[in-house]
Amino acid sequence: NAGVTQTPKFQVLKTGQSMTLQCAQDMNHEYMSWYRQDPGMGLRLIHYSVGAGITDQGEVPNGYNVSRSTTEDFPLRLLSAAPSQTSVYFCASSSPAHSTDTQYFGPGTRLTVL
Amino acid sequence: AQTVTQSQPEMSVQEAETVTLSCTYDTSESDYYLFWYKQPPSRQMILVIRQEAYKQQNATENRFSVNFQKAAKSFSLKISDSQLGDAAMYFCAYRSAYTGGAQKLVFGQGTRLTINP
């Protein structure tokens, strides 16, 4: 049981480049979320999904796209990277069927945009 | 919109002593959940403790306990018998009970805790 996995762990991009941050979970969780963490700030919600085919925006969605074609995977796409997107990105998953309803976080991806 | 405030950017404590981290939040909702997460240098987010707003009893997990004051909208974390492994960034977080479990957590800015041997 790997839990929540994220790839890559580190990435450097140039302004204007595109990339996809991968997130996968093997716990059959319905809910998945993407957060970003900036220095001096807590995590902020980018996008979330309550099930395959269903996504919605969080607090800071601009510049990011998501899709959820399977229960297991929830990729985050940067179509045209900007220096303001330099951050650490966390994926999380949870299930309302679990009594504790706890979010499980991946190890994070550190992204630098030059 | 809900907000979470951690007014202590940094705290330090001697090993084996007790330390309390502060958290206040603002909400107009009556039903919600509050969490403390620990983030060590490995960057992994680890759930420390969870509190349901409808429960008056303060949550405890081994050496970790909370002081939940609903009327004051305060949610502090007490760490007893501090250990070197407790050194980390600690985040307070809020989740509405009305979002259908969509897991939209609102985080505070974090408190960096240092343990002095």
Which descriptors apply to this entry?
heterodimer, A: 114 residues, mainly beta, seven-stranded mixed β-sheet, four-stranded antiparallel β-sheet, globular, B: 117 residues, six-stranded mixed β-sheet, 0% helix, 51% strand
Describe the model.
The complex is a heterodimer of chains A (114) and B (117). Chain A is mainly β and 114 residues long. In chain A, 0% of the residues lie in helices and 49% in strands. In chain A, strands 2, 4, 5, 6, 9, 10 and 11 form a seven-stranded mixed beta sheet that branches. In chain B, 32% of the residues are buried. The mean pLDDT of chain B is 93. Chains A and B meet through strand 4, strand 5 and strand 9 of A and strand 11 of B.
Short description:
By secondary structure, chain A is an all-beta fold.
Secondary structure blueprint with pairings:
The complex is a heterodimer of chains A (114) and B (117).
Chain A: E1 4-7, E2 10-13, E3 19-25, E4 31-37, E5 43-51, E6 54-57, E7 64-66, E8 76-78, E9 87-94, E10 104-105, E11 109-113
Chain B: E1 3-5, E2 10-14, E3 19-21, E4 24-26, E5 32-39, E6 46-52, E7 60-61, E8 64-69, E9 74-79, E10 88-96, E11 106-107, E12 111-116
Parallel strand pairs in B: 2-12
Antiparallel strand pairs in B: 1-4, 3-9, 5-6, 5-10, 7-8, 8-9, 10-11, 10-12
- Which bin fits the share of residues in helices of chain B? under 10%
Structural class of chain B: mainly beta
- Chain pair sharing the greatest interface: A-B, 26 and 23 residues
Mean pLDDT of chain B: 93
- Beta content of chain B: over 45%
Q: Work out the number of β strands of chain A.
A: 11
Give the low-pLDDT segments of chain A.
none
Count the DSSP helices of chain A. 0
Radius of gyration of chain A over all CA atoms, rounded: 13 Å
Shape designation of chain A? globular
- Extended strand count of chain B: 12
